[in-house]
Amino acid sequence: MRCGYFAMPLHPPGADPARTMEEDLEQLVTLDRLGFEEAWIGEHFTAMWENIPCPDLFIAKALALTQTMKLGTGVSCLPNHSPLMLAQRIAQLDQMARGRFYWGVGSGGFPGDFEVVGVDPKSGEQREITRAVLDLILELWNDPKPGLYESKYWRFRIPEPQEDIGLRLHLRPYQRPHPPIGVAGVSAKSETLVLAGERGYIPMSINFVPPRILRTHWDAVEAGAQRVGRVADRSSWRIARDVYVADTNAEARRDAGLRRHAPVPPRQHLDRRRSRHRRSQAGEAPRRGWRVRRAARDCARMAPASGVGALDGAPARAGAASPRVVGGYPYRDSAQ
């Protein structure tokens, strides 16, 4: 198993966004130091719990604070965006990342976000828009032909190049022909995961997908691959799962067991994390070290939809004020 991280993020409505974003950045710095391979950052305009509307801006700062971890949008909800503007922002971000960027895309799913951009989710039009936006962005990166581009959802014009004054839609991604693309799926036999199979994109299953639906996700990827004569690579599948963090295995399992009957106040656990972090900032040795191998072993043993594990010495603000404490995930070669 290889370890990555998914930051939805999760913060209670009313939390100070400046503080929570700083804490989310601190979490990425810690995970980068511990050897986590990648992190994906969510996007929502109207979800107060998930308070990052512009993951590209967040990633731009995180790139400067981390050393080796690859960072990705998790995901760019394509119906939310003008293809022209998103093509420019993602191309610039990929240039800044120099190979440390994944572009995660999806059709979205939050009702408020759909209302903002005038999409009726009951019609299923978001899936059609997603394919159209993705194809158009790839076209703009490859060969942006001059002319008017117009649909029900966007309208823009690519000007004729003028070489004498250096006028041209010029920016391309650093990774050619484009950064690695990840596609998120939520529903059973997800159409976006069929697309991932067709095109060889990275398939991603989000953390709140129950096992009965998760099993259909790889079926969808394989169906898409078979449609075009591809062989799907199961090792590329990212599966998100929740991991509960405590000082020891016994404490984590005890707390998780209590939460089934009487929820444990999240602030209690958060204060423990912060106390440990303050000791670290003061130069004092933490009581224990975070042992990644044991963490991976514990994650692998966890239940299908949620889990507990002891990642000793976790940073103070892992998950900030979230009741989950840590929003990390292991990704593996197969679902169970």
What this model shows, in words?
The protein has 10 helices and 13 strands. A hairpin with a 4-residue loop joins strand 6 and strand 7. The two termini are 13 Å apart. Helix content is 39%, strand content 15%. The chain has a single domain, classed as Alpha-Beta Barrel (TIM Barrel), CATH 3.20.20. The C terminus is likely disordered. The strands form 3 sheets. Strands 1, 2, 3, 4, 5, 8, 9, 10 and 13 form a 9-stranded mixed β-sheet that branches. A two-stranded antiparallel sheet has the order 6-7.
List keywords for this structure.
10 helices; alpha/beta; TIM Barrel; 336 residues; disordered C terminus
* Shape-level CATH architecture: Alpha-Beta Barrel
Domain unit count: 1
CATH fold type: TIM Barrel
Query: Structural class, please?
Result: alpha/beta
Helix content: 25-40%
- Report the radius of gyration as a whole number of Å: 21 Å
Q: Summarize the helix and strand pattern as letters.
A: EHEHEEHEHHEEEHEHEEHHHEE
Number of strands: 13
CATH homologous superfamily - what is it?
Luciferase-like domain
Average predicted local confidence, pLDDT: 81
Alpha plus pi helix count: 10
Strand content: 15-25%
Report on the biggest sheet: 9 strands, mixed
Uncertain runs are 260-282, 284-336
Q: What's the overall geometry?
A: globular
**What is the CATH domain class?**
Alpha Beta
Measure the end-to-end span.
Answer: 13 Å
